[in-house]
Amino acid sequence: MLLIRCPYCGLRPETEFVYGGDATVARPDPATATDEEWAEYIYLRDNPKGRHRELWFHSAGCHAWIEVERDTVTHAITEVAPAREAKR
Amino acid sequence: MNGAPNRAADGGWLIDRDRQETFTFDSREIPFHPGDTVASALLAADVKLVGRSFKLHRPRGIYGLGAEEPNALGIVGAGDRSTPNVRLTTQAAAAGLKVASQNRWPSLRHDAFGMLDRAKALLPAGFYYKTFMWPASQWMRYERYIRRMAGLGPPPTERDPDRYARRSAHAGVLIAGGGPAGLSAALAAAAAGEDVLLAHSGPAFGGGLNDVGDPEARAWLAATMDALEAAPNVRLMLNTTVAGYYDGQMLTLAERVESDDPAAPRERFWHLYAGRTVIATGAIERPMLFADNDRPGVMLAGAARGYLWRYGVLAGQAPILFGADDAIYAIADEMQAAGAHVRAVVDPRPEPAAADALRAKGVRVETGAIVARAHGGKRVEAAEVWRLGSGEPVMIESVACDAVLTSGGWGPALQLHAQARGKLEWNDGLRAFTPGEAAGDWRSVGGARGVMDLEAAKADGAAAGRGEAAAPLSTPAPDGPAPWELPKLTNGLRFVDFQNDVADKDIELAAREGYRSIEHVKRYTTLGMGTDQGKAAGPVGLALLAAATGQEIAATGVTTFRPPTTPVTFGAVAGGHFGEVGHAVRRTAADEWHASQNAKFVDAGLWRRPQFYPANGTTVSEAYPAEAIAVRRGVGVVDVSTLGKIDVAGPDAAELLDRLYINTFSTLKPGRGRYGVMLREDGRVFDDGVVFRLSPDRYHVTCTTGGASAVYQHIEYALQVLWPELEAYATPVTEEWFAAAIAGPRARDLLAAVLPDLDVSNTALPMMALAEAQVFGQRVRVMRMSYSGELSFELNIGADWGLALWERILAAGKGLGVTVYGTEAMGALRIEKGHVTHAEADGRTMPVDLGLGRMVSKKKDAIGARALRLGDLERSGRKQLVGLIAKDPTAKFPVGCQVTAEDTGDTPRPAIGHVTSYARSEELGRHVALALVKNGRAMHGQTAFAVSPVMGQSIEVEIADPVMIDPAGERLRG
Q: I need a surface site. Which of A86, B418, B763, B831 has the fewest CB within 10 A?
């Protein structure tokens, strides 16, 4: 089980969080995006081996969405920040 | 000691020779000294036969010293405290303990299924799969008999009276294993000031230092323990197995609690977060391979050494030692010194250096020779010794003995390293897999890494304790043949998995039948699938497969290691989390009233909700139609507190809701409500509910019971991830409110009686209007909205006043004949009205499928709106929501039914759709359903069939508009 350092609550077990998927995906402009671009936004995700930026929701804590950088091989967490402050 | 002929005159580091107690094994009294295991006491008492094998019911004896034991499993304790499949090698002997052998009937010595052994030729690998699967319909019948013959111990039938506990903890350094390497690691880490936790699976630290007589080694152990016990930054845990290694440096520890306190738990299960982990779980000995190598009395040589030094027990009075390892000479010497008469040391190597020294002491040593077969039945009586040479092997002699102690070398205990997904490397020197690259902050040391020399293992542990990198592994060149390289010279099975009766020829058969992957061979032959996970002999089986398939052992690999390393009881894993406290139960404010009426409850997420009230009918199918029709004809009240409620406020609240819902909320007037639908970004319906605008910058959002937490999370996602520039705030407030809905033609009368000061007229309180009133000096929100399709009001009050409001409604409704209804009637009412729930909005349906297409605003973007315009999602032939009305008034919809156009009786029948929910409609006098049917909207009025081929049932139905009652909506606007 992972331990995630919530920027607001401190080090907490994974069970307090809900996984929210790839944090690097940006929502395209719906007015200009082609069908292909929109389909890619909805359906296609990379599955990187190594460092991965992802979203977690602290559902049993402060209700913050946070952006976590985690190594998908070692599960080492190298960075955590509030999602609202992340550049996307 | 009386009754313990194999107890040496002195010695035994772990036992207290001054005290003696007894336990019973089956009906026999077995003496022991405190510190003995059940296995060591049985060996001391010369009990060779301790169990029967799983499949062939062959007699089996104690084989190992600890967790690797495949044979000696027993039922420990009696009645509600009986535990089956306990390894007797790790079970401490205790006064009065009841231990029973298992998998035998009627008794261990006279087992009725022992004849299976003679039928081994008829029971090859995969026998059950091949034989009993035809005809497939009979498998269930065969299985009962097979299970009776092949099995482990029976589970207890009574509730476990003991208490189990769970704990979480952190440690800077976790050290798994308290042998020389683990103790050295602990000392070094402690000296560096780290927070150390040392967990050892047995009752005494020392590991291999307990298996030697060397006084220097014992002195080092004593000094080390003194230092560790004195160190304030070291926690020492005995009887604690590191059971699993999980992601994020979390490990599980299973602790058997040794305590006289009756309130203490029997076991504790730990979640331990380790800064780093040192794996010092030692090495496991492998046996040599020979025919009938499972006879009671055949044992690992290292285990025999352990019994001698730990417990002062001779594994045999007249043993033969067999191996290609100098250690067996030392063991022979030690046993001889302790009073045994060693019959022979048999070594396949031509002339090892250690041979002559032992010969000089008068011990027979046969070099260039092997044990080819063991003889005996319920105990080993002799071993065939054969000479290997340049020509044909020849039998020298069948040497009489009472034990064959065998060593085929040692391999690291890889479980924790492999569970953590560390790589494995084949080591040609050790002829074993050793831990390779670690993917995280852990390191194997000592025997667990393949460092078998004592001083080198201590140095390896100390280096790891200091956090240093591992020195390269130096291993001697292989000396003599590996177990799997020994020739098969006689008849008889050569077992490579004792617990599951897998022999060399099963592996060869699997290879002949085309199996190559070790994972497949494991499942086909059951190699390594027992409770011992093939710890001792499993590697020999893997090597045989490699040979049989012409692959390198390194390429054949190993099967996946999965937690736990040794069996953990369900009690320990469950801890206190079972029964009533298994999960949290959320109760509404009126829960105690529902309970007082003996309401039948259903789970809705964590909530418990009344399904129906026995006052309205004794069974659910009797009660709910009565409750539903009472609503349609008069008035009913239902507790709807569980529906999700979210307060959304802020200057951008309106803009936020416009982006969350397919329809528009910025145009909604304060004091009014509107039904809204939310989509997932892929255009599928996510949730729905009515939203009221409380003030220009504040909304009261409602959502489904089951969707409440996901909807709140979704709103926060929109606010924090998608559009952090929006200034709005969402607060989940479900629990703060109690909510009751009153519905039916007389709902207005009831509302007026409950809230006499409120103007309840249609002008003052039209459909989708919000009003506030006072009761008990508290604010009540009254929202006119309808789920049932009848005139209906939902009342919200602070949860503390919920029960009072509920009772006030019932009191006021007495004269009006108010009926309390539950979720089942609520479901029937909404089905009649074609209102969707998650049965219809099942994650695949889009608004247009559910008849909600016109709600989608074309003027704005919303989550999921863009996806609705992706071409493929608009193609024809999609399933559309329809109603189904049974033609026969007595016909019920079959459970889990499909919709077909024809009722030809043939299968497979092409389905044109499926039923999502159904109910008895008292109003229509028949059963009705909602269904998703291909192009169903164009089929209203047509005949179809609701069919369950599984149940063999089919009913004729008319496809209808999903709104099957009051399509114009006159009742709810009345």
A: B763
